[in-house]
Design a protein that fits this description.
Length: 80
């Protein structure tokens, strides 16, 4: 599995789970420990997503292309 998929997928799932716990806990029992923990999980997931974005932006080029005519290599961020 691609490391970027894990780096972005796990915090996204945590964000969805935390927001679900927060909203359902508020509707079912008011402001108790469960919705607070859901909100904390969501905040940690947002921080993990920000860290994943910062690491992805600092990585080197992901693909090296070679020009067919001159043989010169170029670096690109993403292949399309």
């Amino acid at each position: 599995m691609n490391s970027e998929t894990i780096a972005f997928g796990v915090p996204f799932v945590g964000l969805l789970l935390g927001s679900g716990i927060l909203v359902s806990g508020l509707f079912l029992g008011g402001l108790t420990l469960v919705p607070v923990l859901g909100g904390a999980l969501g905040m940690l997931s947002i921080a993990a997503l920000a860290l994943a974005v910062a690491r992805a932006a600092s990585d080197g080029p992901s693909v090296t292309l070679t020009d067919r005519e001159s043989g010169e290599s170029r670096h690109v961020r993403k292949a399309k």
